Amino acid sequence: MIRLAVIFVSCVFFFLGCDCSHDHAHSGHDNQHHHDHDHEHDHEHNQDHDKSENCNSGEKCSDKGESHQHTSQNTIRLSMNIQRAMGLETVKAQKRDVKSIFTCSGVYELLPNARESVATPVAGRLTILVKPLSYVKKGDALFTVTSPELVARSRQIAALERRLDAYRQIKTRNAELENELEVKRAERLALISHSEEKDGVITLVSPVDGLVESFLKQNGEWLEMGDSPVVIVRSHALCFKALVPSGEAAKLKDDLSARVGSFAGKVRLGVGDNTSLVPVYVIFDGDVKALAGMRDEAVIVLSDSKTSALAIPAKSIVSINLKPTVFVRDSKDSEKFLALEVATFDSSGGWTEVEGLDADAEVVVSGAYELKLALPSGETKSAGHFHADGTFHEAEH
């Protein structure tokens, strides 16, 4: 009996040992599987994290086939297509004497005397000889007027000449007829204003080089003395006009030297109104090879100072974390822009003296605010991204 009991206990322990070993092995397998799964998950997570970091560092990423441009902490990368889509513009920093230079934007305008109206000195029937919007030279024929009055005067003069010829044939002088003939001839000459006339038809010519701007009368109409059927405009008889706030205009005075593009001129202050804007004109010495309506910038010299400092357009400066900042294009990578803090000084005419930039730095003027929103600074909640059409989304991809 004792031997049977020992064998039974041994069998129980044998079976228990097998179960424990199996459970332990199974548990070890589960732990290994769990460890491998966790390692795999961590590895995938790290890969995703790395991709996100790479995306945020300025590399292109794609979501559902859509191209984005992401920002890093102080740099932004934009493809040339996106730069064009958002209308991004840059200007190079310049050496300027901001204190003694005043700039203002405006347009070219025709001078008040740029239009020439050609009037008829006699009444008669109109015949137009030029086409609308054609260019004419000084002395070119514009129109003719067939005048019954000139025909009548020509007949009177011819009759007086025949009578005087009769007196000459009998060698008799008629002073009264001679005086009357001289008066009639002088009246006729004054009437046609020394224009060409033949058989009662007077031809009027252009007094200047210019453009046939408009017809005030139709071909074949009857004209009264002094009517102006044709208007000629001197296209390059221009001045420059800018509307300047009255506080800024107070710095200016008449006859200051100014330059608009490559054209030199003098300042003439206009008369302001209740809008607090004062018209400032630049009057040029002669014709200007520009077009009325074109926009440009006038540079007015306030003093003869020769000091200059590095300056950039004032609108290129944005505030990030309450610090003046500009976006500068990388000189070696046209698709990369760097946000740089600058120190600002005097401003005038839309330009501001700065320190902290290279002399040839190319700063963003149009689009600086959009780049500020895209930059993950302290003022923005999160980084953003640009779409291929130039629109910006603040959310992370």
Protein described:
The chain has 397 residues and is α+β, with helices and mostly antiparallel strands. It is built from 6 helices and 29 strands. The strands form 7 sheets. A 6-stranded antiparallel beta barrel has the order 6-16-19-18-17-20. Strands 11-12-10-8-14 form a 5-stranded antiparallel β-sheet. β17 (257-260) and β18 (263-269) form a beta hairpin. The chain is elongated, with a radius of gyration of 44 Å. 23% of the residues are buried. Residues 1-72 and 378-383 have low confidence and may be disordered.
Could you name the key traits of this structure?
single chain; 397 residues; alpha+beta; five-stranded antiparallel beta sheet
User: How is the main sheet built?
Assistant: 6 strands, antiparallel, barrel
What is the straight-line distance between the termini?
80 Å
Low-confidence runs = 1-72, 378-383
Binned, the helix content reads 25-40%
What structural class results from the helix and strand content? alpha+beta
* Mean pLDDT metric: 80
Radius of gyration, rounded? 44 Å
The number of E-state strands comes to: 29
Strand content: 35-45%
What is the tally of helical segments?
6
Strand order of the largest sheet: 6-16-19-18-17-20
| Bulk shape | elongated
